[in-house]
Design a protein that fits this description.
The chain is an alpha/beta fold. It has 2 domains: about 210 residues, Rossmann fold, CATH 3.40.50; about 90 residues, Rossmann fold, CATH 3.40.50. About 45% of the residues lie in helices and about 15% in strands. The strands form 2 sheets. The chain has a 6-stranded mixed β-sheet, with helices on both faces. Strands 5-4-3-6 form a 4-stranded parallel β-sheet. Helix 3 crosses helix 9 and helix 13 packs across helix 14. The longest helix has 17 residues. The chain is globular. The protein starts with a helix and ends with a helix.
């Protein structure tokens, strides 16, 4: 994957996705003492950035592969993205989801037309993939696929076009596909931009992999940020993080919820913890910035149910 691949992805998916807004936030700029912009991917179709990668992958399938159908694994946003993209392209889709997946994610995935297959854990869901592949289905990996990552990387192109003076970007990490795509796009165009990865305690597979020097399998996902709940990163996404990220800041669920509440009350935008954690991390690192910096927070998703919001608060 390179920036040319990402440019090609942008042209391929353009008819099917939204170009989301990059907006200046007065209140966040005041809070962090710098110039802060938010990339509103939570207003993307299906409520997260994931449709970018899903469409880019599915649009490259041959007619014969489309007839065989697809299978995906997800704790939420990738599930909805693959289900939606499959329905638009008339492809049969099966989505494997852990039983702990919030109800609103399961219902939305089903409503987009996919068959939902609940598994005890995310690891068990991944283990079932070979069975569906043996039946002929094409696996749409949530992050360890160059085509999926290239689709996500289109966000980086849009950020630099809308704000050429960007100096810093905060990006959430689950399996590392979003971060991998964004760093590939941004570093190719403006290598001096600093890119900061963010995870939550209990869904910190990238931070643990960076510390160990190799992918680490998490025994369980204990964070409320279920959409960051990849059991491990891949060699590919780890390599990109090692080469390009300034660091990976791991924040607590409490910090993510505090940031979520602040964003909702002051910006009137409902994020999910996987998005609000970027503000929590930027708040920790505010001494890294001055009035000349232009900091972008990627709000990657907003698929949060009212029940979960009330529970968190």
């Amino acid at each position: 994957m390179d920036v040319t691949t990402i440019e090609q992805a942008r042209q391929r998916i353009k008819p099917f996705i939204k170009r989301t807004a990059l907006e200046y936030s007065h209140i966040l700029s005041q809070q962090l003492g710098t110039n802060v912009f938010v990339k509103l991917e939570l207003f993307q179709k299906t409520g997260s950035f994931k449709v970018r990668g899903a469409f880019n992958k599915l649009l490259t399938l041959t007619d014969e592969e489309r007839k065989r159908g697809v299978v995906a694994v997800s704790g939420g946003n990738h599930a909805q993205a693959v289900a939606y993209a499959s329905s638009v392209l008339n492809i049969d889709a099966v989505i494997l989801m852990p039983e702990s997946t919030p109800r609103n994610y399961v219902e939305a995935t089903h409503d987009y037309g996919a068959k939902v297959d609940l598994q005890p854990t995310i690891a068990a869901a991944f283990a079932e993939i070979k069975r569906f592949e043996s039946e002929g289905r094409i696996f749409v990996h949530p992050f360890d696929d160059p085509l999926v990552m290239a689709g996500q990387g289109t966000i980086g192109l849009e950020i630099l076009e809308d704000s050429p003076e960007t100096t810093d970007i905060f990006v959430s990490i689950g399996g590392g596909g979003l971060a991998g795509g964004v760093v590939t796009a941004v570093k190719a165009i403006k290598p001096e931009v600093r890119i900061w990865g963010v995870e939550t305690v209990g869904a910190d597979s990238m931070a643990q992999a960076l510390a160990a020097g190799h992918p680490v399998e998490l025994q369980a996902i204990t964070s409320i940020a279920k959409t960051l709940g990849a059991p491990s990163v891949s060699l590919q996404t780890l390599a990109l993080a090692q080469e390009h990220l300034e660091n990976v800041t791991v924040v607590s669920d409490k910090e993510a919820v505090k940031a979520l509440q602040f964003i909702l009350e002051r910006m009137k935008v409902l994020t999910e913890p996987a998005s609000s954690c970027t503000l929590a991390a930027a708040s920790r690192l505010k001494n890294q910035f001055n009035q000349d910096n232009n900091v972008v927070l990627i709000f990657c998703g907003g698929n949060l149910s009212l029940d979960d919001l009330c529970h968190y608060i």
